[in-house]
Amino acid sequence: MSCRRVGAAGLAAALACAALTGCMPWEDEPEQKKIGAAAGRQGGKTDQSAVRKEKAARAAKVKANELGQIPVLMYHRVVDRPTAPDDRTPGQFRKELERLAVEGYVPITAAEYVRGRIGVPPGKHPVVLTFDDASPEQLTLDGTGTPMPNTAVAILQEVAKKHPGFRPVATFYVTRDLFGKTTPEEQTQMLTWLRENGFDIGNHTHGHRNLLGMSKKEAMTEIAKGHELITELTGTDPVTLALPYGNQPSTKSWALKGRAGDVSYDYGGVFRAGYTPGSSPFSKDFDPVNLPRIRSMDKIKKDDCARFCSTAWLDWLKANPSERYTSDGDVATVAYAKFKAPFMASGFTPYALPY
Predict the structure, then answer these.
(1) Could you report the per-residue pLDDT of 261-285, keeping only the tens digit for each?
(2) pTM of the predicted model over 0.85
(3) Could you give the CA distance from residue 344 to residue 286 in angstroms, rounded to a whole number?
(4) What values do phi and psi take at 346, rounded to 5?
């Protein structure tokens, strides 16, 4: 039996399915939802109002704000000698990860973000780490299947080991140039390793072509070819798409859902390249066809860092903690201070936990 659920109205059916099969009601669900099996398992003579009051008290204690903003950071190559503005050195990348860990951020994948599966501890803040273009500097494996030193994945794992609770997960937006591997066997090996180690794989189109100005058929073909590549190598459909150069097609919805030949795609979210922190998936502001990412970059005088770079935005979120997504630690609820209620999307009313 499948636990697929469509729409918030299916909560009771989903929870009944979970009770019968043991699977979570969000499994295989392509939309952003936040449903907790725990909410449906409070049985017997449990005083639901008392349980809810206790949850609200815990949420208030950590100042939970699950309608707050989530930084989605965008990385490209991690190299000793940067040659492009989006390159980062191993030292710069490590420093930023260390900062995230110290400031209470916990990585989640892009798929978890758009689906609302934000299971981070109480008082912690989700962050989404994304990598574009699938370069060897992001991941190269040695003969034993271990990430090579100073690759992005190796550094992420080292920081996570140093800071327990800092999950070593990220989303890789891949094209046909899969980490420099050319054979299907090598490409399958790389993507399989990522999936088996908790990483998420997203579509970055097949040939990294600019979708701006393409016809509907051209744009959908380019997206569908990238989607098919991932599906054939992993056996699983990607959940999100990152737009090459951050440019949307002339009709935004073509990137979210479409079909070319026998291949169809239906994404939970489409990411651009740059701008601001992202909205909570439970907020009215969440727009799955237009999700922003922040460029990983340090402050440089007389540039546009204040609008686009990670250092400036992490500084801003630290200085404005009430604007940041803070978890209550309970995936069965959407917790927030009562006065923020007008900002919550109506579809999540059954899971609201105002305090």
Answers:
(1) 999 999 999 999 978 999 999 999 9
(2) yes
(3) 10
(4) -60, -25
